[in-house]
């Protein structure tokens, strides 16, 4: 039972005769009248126990995009239900109107919609709805919480999608689908053409030359149907916030752009989120389009506050493929002890695969390095210089084992990694 403001006002007005008239008789008389009125009002209120709820609306939504979570309320009771309800969405769902008025006649249904604007990726839930049903005079109300679980999955925004057309154009030029033909790149036979000055003599096809009595050369293109394996580090270092997002979210953006680009390039793509165990797996082997599978797998990912088990990564990659592939490690260059974890694992993988390490660099390091106006600024600049030198040393050690490194700021990492993929294609290393 809930007491309304009107009932409180009546109680205060009822105290007037008590203060003016002597004795307790008037007090008990006023209390009895007020209790009788409130009880009658409560008895006439519709029962929230007899309300039936049905949720509807989209299952998947984009980050920061408005969405309507619909709620159909059916009154199975004999009395009209007038009052309000509160839909218990968590704060990150960004509910604009979680509390609404409701008026459902007996035996009828009404539809309400809560406007959500999610501000966080992942699975958002509303476990229940709380109803408050007032009587005709709105002096008292019945309140009950009805279990009605609702959920939506907020997908990664894929802001790096804007880079996809330009990267696909470069890939088409490389693959011979546009007018530009890059000679000498790739390992898969494309076609025969007449020899021109400057062609590599090793590309001459002597049998075709003998048949045509003219020098003919083979043209090559990057081999298709290669495998790209992306391993995303979800350990504690992925929880660090750089600019306005976590390192994990920056890695997701880079993985999405590379995965879609590689699929359009004819390669097979596998995605693995790992720390001490595999969190999610996705790839081109499943049903549906790759983008849909990737965003569904990435949406619920959160950093785990544990250390990365780099020693287990080569075995995880072998479980995906035993053939030579492009292995991309989306991780950090400044967390833990890379000489004991990242570097040995990358070196072991580089013995069989083409390995790329992609890491997010904090742009604040550059700002700290340039600010030396006072003593505190000089100390911050020295700390930034040391951090950058350590990253450079780790990158140099990785390159010594034949590992490619992409070290870029958050918004530059996705296009930088895509460019590295295209360069490896052009060099015939894939």
Automatic annotation (TrEMBL):
InterPro entries: DUF58. Residues 192-364 form the DUF58 domain. This is Uncharacterized conserved protein, DUF58 family, contains vWF domain.
